[in-house]
Amino acid sequence: MDCKILIVEDEAKLREVLCDYFLSKGERPVEAGDGLEALERLEEEAFDAVLLDIMMPGLDGLSVCRAVRRSNDVPILFLTALSDEEDKLLGYELGADDYVTKPFTLSVLYAKTMALIRRNRRNVLAGDRMEAGGITMELAAQKVFAAGREVVLTPKEFALLRCLMEHKNMVLSREQLLVKCWGYDYEGESRAVDTQIKRLREKLGEQAACIKTVIKAGYRLEG
Questions:
Q1: Measured torsion, CA atoms of residues 27, 68, 8, 96, in degrees rounded to the nearest 10
Q2: pLDDT for residue 186
Q3: Do 148 and 185 lie in a common domain?
């Protein structure tokens, strides 16, 4: 299927085995050795699925899942040695799509991963598309076009544009955008929105004219 899959596993040997197996199946595995590296990868790139180990030092898989689900609907499959039902229920509550309990066979893991990706793609409806001000956004495909030209956005930029388009012609404060897009609910980071808006405008070019700055209030996308 030529899918891009993020494999998050702190055990180097197992991570290598998983990457080699998915590569042999014609997929494009990308590895991360811990939770922080996983979040950095997800900020920079779009993936078709994430295989996420739960028991990792530092930032564990549950914390990573919680952070990802603030702005990203990518399918997440947990790799876990935990078999307790309460742990699995917590994972589902945080947004996990499926589990594979260690030890597992590579063929079963691959089959479950591909099934998640196919199901996610089938959920794409004709209405899974937004347009405004010469900008077209395809939600499931994570693609944006400005006047027909594809624009490559980071996940944060994509989440910001999506939020503005979903609330078209409405003024959203910096604080609202932080919470709606990235889940930040504390003061002191609101100017991060200005930085993301600036980058978004640069990438959209002339079509960025529809994103208006409302003095002392926030931003509004007109369309």
A1: -80
A2: 43
A3: yes
